[in-house]
Amino acid sequence: MNINIVFIGGDARMIYAAKALSERYGCFLYGFGESGCGLPSHAPGAKYDIAVLPVVAGNGEIKLMSSGNSADCGIIAEMLGTGAAVFAGRAPEMLKSVCAEHRFSLYDYLEREELAVLNAQATAEGAVGIAVNELPGTVRGSSALVLGFGRIAKLTARCFAALGADVTVAARKKADLAWAEACSYKPVDITDASAFSAALGTADVILNTVPAPILSGPAAAAVRPDAALIELASVPCTGGEPQFRVIPAGGLPGKTAPRTAGNIIAKTIETILTERSIENGGA
User: Fold this and answer.
1) Domain extents for the chain?
2) Are the C-beta atoms of 264 and 115 separated by less than 8 Å?
3) DSSP for residue 164
């Protein structure tokens, strides 16, 4: 059965995802202007089996690359046929309501563990690239402090250690501290104010993955003025006006490795489609 997919808005990641999936499916673009790399654009009135959306804003808006404007997520009702499926990142309630009303199947690809892990690797490599440009010396021999020890933090610590940095991991959970020690990183308990301040005071580069304001007051004062904080979390860890450099680095895969990030999205969508086919008896 031929499956036609329309990609609605987003950035270069969506174009690369469409190119990857176009090897097996009919792929069309909406909202990319002349940036479609040879892929066909949506034809008015055309109906598709699947719509792929980027991360959709809470108000249901989808950013369009071509104009800098946005489209309402309700646009999918005009483009999809009966029994269609919608793939999106962090689907807000408005999108869920549209899909429920029209009986579209909704899949949130950002909830998939395989995508999260591969995106974390791309984020870690992007963080290394920022550090190379921001540090006055080489990564090798530098003191790198990783805050948190989730997916992104684990892979970021590994990348910096592989380049010869002296890596310290600061976390709250005893299990995370044990894993950090097992990986040959220096573990520091964030709840131990003295130890945490000491680690902050010796760091050349701080890589934050904790979406909470953990660097304020005495902790912020402990950071050297010449240190660089690379902010990888969705919520900044600093408060007020830090006396050190803060480099916002959210969404790194889309900025530093859009082709890789797009291919990861495409691979995840293919996996979901395969699972869906198996669940439906191969139909």
Assistant:
1) 4-111+257-279, 115-250
2) yes
3) T
C-alpha span between 5 and 16 (Å, rounded): 14
Lowest mean pLDDT among 18-27, 82-91, 120-129, 234-243: 234-243
Q: If residue 197 lies in a helix (H) or strand (E), which one and from where to where?
A: helix 193-202
- Superfamily covering domain 115-250: NAD(P)-binding Rossmann-like Domain (3.40.50.720)
Distance CA 125, CA 159 (A): 7
Alpha helices in 55-165 (DSSP H): 76-79, 93-102, 113-134, 151-162
Residue listed under structure tokens 């990986």: 183
Other beta carbons within 10 Å of 274: 10
Angle between helices 258-279 and 113-134 (to 10 degrees): 170
Q: Do domains 4-111+257-279 and 115-250 have the same CATH topology?
A: yes
Give the C-alpha separation, 107 to 269, whole Å.
9
CA pair distance 170, 149, nearest whole angstrom:
8
Residue 276, both tokens: 């869906």
64-101 pLDDT, tens digit each: 987 678 999 999 999 999 999 999 998 999 999 999 99
Q: In the CATH scheme, what is the homologous superfamily, with its name and number, of domain 4-111+257-279?
A: NAD(P)-binding Rossmann-like Domain (3.40.50.720)
